Predict the 3D structure of the following.
Amino acid sequence: MTFSAWMCSAAAVLRKDLLVEFRTRAALNALLLFAVSSLVVVSFTIGADALARETKAAFLWIVLFFSAMVGLSRSFVREEETKTADALRLAAPPEAVFVGKLLANLATLALVEVVVLPLFFGLLMAECRNWPLFLLTAALGTLGVAAGATICAALVAKASSGGALYAVLCLPILLPVLISAVNATAAALTGAPWAQAAGDLRILLSYSGIVVTASLMLFEHLWTA
Amino acid sequence: MLWLRLANLSKSFDGTKVLDSVSLRVEQGTVLSISGRNGSGKTTLLRIIAGLLRPSGGSVECGEGDEPPWQPARLRRELGYVSPDLALYESLSARENLDFFARVRGCTRDPNELLDYVGLGGRGDEPIGSFSSGMRQRLKLAFALQASPRVLLLDEPGVTLDEAGREVVVRAVAEQRPRGVVLLASNDPEEVALGDDVLRLDV
C-alpha cells in the first residue's frame, strides 16, 4: 500500500469516527458534561479568588484528563462492543486505524477545549499573561493526552472490565504529560518568561513523539489476533 | 493458480480443544463446504483463516503458483468474509458503510453496483440500524465482495436470508469460483451442496 493510500485509509477512519460520534454523541456528551459540571461546581463552591494561579492550572488539566478518561476509551471499546472491530480489522491497515482514531480523539478533545477554556477563564477568573505560551501548551498537552489515551484505549478494548482498567492504565502513562502541561500552563498564567517553560515544552513535544512512534510500532500486535 | 493450505491447524479455548490438526489444501476454482455440529469449530476455522483468531498450533498459507506464501497483510487484502459475528456501523447508511470500507481498502468498486447486486439498491440511504436481519446479511455479503476477493470465506451465508437472498449467495459463489477459492461453513444441506467437496469437522 502506498503512503497516499495509507493516508486515505487513516482519513476515512477519522471521517467515519467523527460521523458516528456526530450522530450518536456518545463520547462528546459525556466529556462535555463532566468538564462543564466540574468547572461550575468548583467555581461556585471554592470560589475563583481562593485559588492560586498554579492551582487553577492544575485544575484545568485535571478536568481535561478526567474528561478524556470518560470519553476517549469509547473509541476502541465501541468497535468491540458493537462487533464492528472485525470488519475494520479485515478492511483497514492497522496503523491507519490507529492514526485515524488518534486524530478523531484529538478533534474531540479540541472541541471540548473550545467549550472548556472560555468557561475556565470566565468562571475561575483566570488571567493569562502569556497567551502564545498558553496556546502552545494547550496544543502540545492535548496531543500528548490524545496519544496516550488512544493507545490505552486499544490496550483495554478486549478486556472484560475495560472501563475500570482504562483510568488505572492511563494515569501512569499520562502523568509526565500532565505534570509538564500543568507547569507550563502555570508559567503562562503567571507571565513567566518562555525560558522557564522551555523544559516542560520539550517534554510535551518529546512525549507525543515517543508515544505516537511507539504506538505505530506496537499497534498491529494489539489490534490483530 | 491460487492455493490455500492449512497445516496441522489446532485451536483450544481454556484447555478445550476445538480444532485438532486440521490439514487441507484447496486450489483455485474450488468450493469447499465445511459442516459439523454446533461447536465443532467451523466458525473458529474460518476466523483463523481470516486472521481474526490466532491458532494454538499449525499454520495457514495462501499464495499463487510457485511464489512464496503471501504475507498476512496481502492475504487480508485478498480476502472476503461473511459471518453472523460480523457487524457493520449501525448509525451509518448502507451506502456510507460501503463507501467507508471502499476508502479504507483503497478499492474503487462502486457501492451502488454492490447494493444492486445484493438486492439493496433502493435502500442504500437508510441507516442499517433500521434494517432487518436479512438485509444486514445482504449488506455483509456486499462488504465481503467489495474488494473482489480471491479467497471468499462464508460462515452461514444464507442464515436469515429469504429465497432471493439465497440466490444472491449462489450467484456470488458461482462467480467467485474461477477467481479463487470459496470456503463455505454451513449445516444447511442446500448450501453444503454448493461445494465440490465437504470437510466434516465432527468426525
